[in-house]
């Protein structure tokens, strides 16, 4: 039998790398022939390389997984990789689709791989014989099924928002991926934004306004027009000799000022 091929589609490079690594452990015979960071690139790569399986993230810039799925499902088995809960996932429990919840559970991935091996055999082993048996009807039936599943997904997507979990920062000629859980605060620095962790600081081009819209408001608070702070990193709130509220952060000697417009966040002071 020819090698089974797959493509991983996710806008987060660490997630692609993590999934590739786990698949190599669980299913070493599976050949990952491509990766893509959004639906547009995924469609282009699929047209060139024809992967039999596509692991497809839902939330991506450009063209998201939902928008790309209708085209990709015509020639490949889709496995959605999603952060949705079990209620939303019921949409996948049928037909030619499967799902993986983020963060990916190894046992669940093993189950998915077992199902995929069988599905690939069923879908591709007798492909030549099946092509002659009412291909138009099959195509229409599959398209209807995909459309129904995607409609359910879009309804769920409208009700939920997936927040930014990684920040990309250039360090010399390399790209550093910083988990938002590592970040103490963001601070505006003229044309750039400073990203501070316990170990180091980085500069990125994304503005504080963009970050505020993309970060979970329960995890990051705007305390000043020039600063966003991770709430769980706050060690203490004090007042200086001028009566200003100042934040002390875990693992950081720098104090951050809370502007008058944001003092209500610390009303007990």
From TrEMBL:
SMART domains: LytTR, REC. It comes from the Bacteria. Residues 167-269 form the HTH LytTR-type domain. Pfam families: LytTR, Response_reg. Residues 5-117 form the Response regulatory domain. The modification 4-aspartylphosphate is found at residue 57. Keywords: Phosphoprotein. This is Response regulator transcription factor.
